Amino acid sequence: MLTRPDAKGRFGAYGGRFVPETLIPALEELEQEFDKAWADPDFHKEFDRLLNEFVGRPSPLTDADRLSEETGLQISIKREDLNHTGAHKINNALGQALLARRMGKKRIIAETGAGQHGVATATVCALFGLQCEVYMGEEDCARQELNVFRMRLLGAKVHPVSSGTKTLKDALNEAMRDWVTNVADTHYIIGTAAGPHPYPYMVREFHRVIGDEARAQYLERHGCLPDAGIACVGGGSNAIGFFYAFLADPTALYGVEAGGLGVASGKHAAPLTAGSPGVLHGSFSYLMQDENGQVLATHSVSAGLDYPGVGAEHSYLKDSGRVQYVSATDEEALSAFRWLSEKEGIIPAFESAHAFATLRTPNLFKPGTRVLVNLSGRGDKDMEMASRLLEL
Amino acid sequence: MEKVERKPQMTIADKFSQLRARNEKALVLFITAGDPPLEELPAILEALQEGGADLIEVGIPFSDPIADGPIIQASSQRALDRGVTPGAVLEMIAKAKLEVPLITMGYYNTFYRIGLDKSAEALGKAGVNATILSDLTPEESDDWTKASRAHNLDNIFLAAPTSTDQRLDEVCRRATGFVYAVSRTGVTGSASSVPPEVKTLVQRIKSRTHLPVCVGFGISQPDHVRMVCEVADGAVIGSWLVDFLEKGWENGEGKSELTTALQALKQATRGRN
Fold it and tell me: Any idea where the domains of chain B sit in the sequence?
């Protein structure tokens, strides 16, 4: 298994840098600065201190007894939902903000889908006194209104994006355009494991803490490794951070994409399941596209998974066969959302609910299988949507 | 893409030799294919040539144009909404009666998805002289260079104000046709003035290559063209023209107004002696 991308920023065939020339020097600088920081014990000391004192890490491992009883599996949950701001996103936002501060960049921009990365970025910018502007698709602003308000409360400026599909894909386009224009004083905190090199690698490194903690916690409590690990995949940041610690282990790994109305319907966001390789947002990876290379509109009940591309390393892991990528539909995810709430007293984000839906896939796991699920975020942000979709 | 054949017009190198002999610089015009509707494309291309275009760039619409500002984004979106495909664009390009070199401008995924060799062959057959891919830098261009050279297409790379000396060396080593100097950090779009620092960039490029250098991004008026042509070999006008065509082409009725505007821009490329 590759531990870091090659000199051209590729994981196998995937990754690279497909961006306007203007940005290349900034990406080169970012790569150098990240490598320096990541080799600097003082940087790690500060990062670890803030992960502990500000984020609340390590996040707990919860054994899900009632889910286990019902399914006949032995299910444990990594609780990224209990991080400050309610999702795993804060790990990367904190790491990149520390890096931006080291690089002397005073202005931070970010894109957001569900709003979790936007909130995490606005939070760390408030913590460090950095100027923060967040791009968010108009449609996402409407379905995640609460997070828009949270970002504004934290002092960030939110730019609704009305171009294209008005969702995460176009928010990313708009953030890229901002960065091309203001590259001298601005750092762009990409919130997922996609984008041009070094983002997929750097974002994974900042999220590695998820898998590193979960693996150690699981070993300590159960005296063995889990047989299987599951995480949801949009761009794939929580999944790559979670999977990475287990790549050399015998643990089977499953990435769950958004199946929307069903992969066969075409209305989904599952590029690894039903897409093909191509270039989007600066990187060569699987994506959803038509025969002329136009990127297709996606559909998912979950704004955070509603993205036609995916991180380069996931494409590599798919082709290598190390990770199996599957999908869960909107309906399956909603049902799992309710299931986890009722059975375990944990309300997951719609995104994370996709990972739990996989536990109910018939014949996927043998009875008694030890399964560790990464719960990437909590469902508070989805309450309004859930109250419209579920009759209680 | 369908292979539509047409005899290639003048090469880019020949065009610049001709301009040098006339003591002129190049007026390079960009338009989006399919906005106005694609059926109008041959007539628009011919009108641009008549108005004084020395080279023409035809934008192939892409769903995610990260290097483009609001005007070209919206224009690409209108074209896509009309169902414009790369194959249909080449078919219409091949119908135009053109002598000036023609360049397509777009994003890498279009050619990658269709197939690099298949795309290069179709471009060559339609009489296209060169390509510009806004998100393809020299480092990632090996495959496209190989495919496009096999069909006699020039590769035009962008150089930016942020490009280091090392990167400019790489751009100049790989470029054929001309080098496209981006006037400022940012996306495409009209601006009230062209930053004077662009002259430094042009000089940095010229110290590395004998290829012509054209400047684009933010150029919309004869004054801008004049300023750019003091140091560069040509000026590229895009967003202003895209905007004009959307509002003023009117199925060709706006042609005489367009010609007048283009003549003023062309005049600004001529030497003052």
Answer: 12-156+218-259
**Whether the Cβ atoms of residue B234 and residue B212 lie closer than 8 Å to each other:** yes
Question: What is the per-residue DSSP string for B1-16?
Answer: -----------HHHHH
What residue type is assigned to position B204 of the chain? R
**Chain A residues in contact with B164 (beta carbon < 8 A):** 25
Residue A101, pLDDT score: 96
Average pLDDT over residues B44-69: 97
Q: Residues A31, A33, A111, A344: which is the catalytic one? A: A111
Which of B135, B156, B174, B215 should be substituted to probe chain A, the one whose Cβ sees the most A Cβ atoms within 10 Å? B135
Buried b (16+ CB within 10 A) or exposed e, B89-98: bbbbbbbbeb
Residue numbers of A between 284 and 323 with CB closer than 8 Å to B: 289, 291-295
Write the pLDDT tens digit of every residue in A220-235: 999 999 999 999 999 9
**What one-letter code names the amino acid at B127?**
G
Domain B12-156+218-259 of CATH type 3.20.20.70: yes
Select the residue of B68, B74, B135 nearest A19 (Cβ to Cβ).
B135
Please identify which of the residues A33, A59, A80, A89 carries the catalytic annotation: A89
Three-class DSSP labels, A82-125: HCHHHECHHHHHHHHHHHHHHHCCCEEEEEECCCHHHHHHHHHH
**Closest CA relative to residue A61, chosen from A239, A209, A205, A221:** A221
- State the complex-level ipTM: 0.94
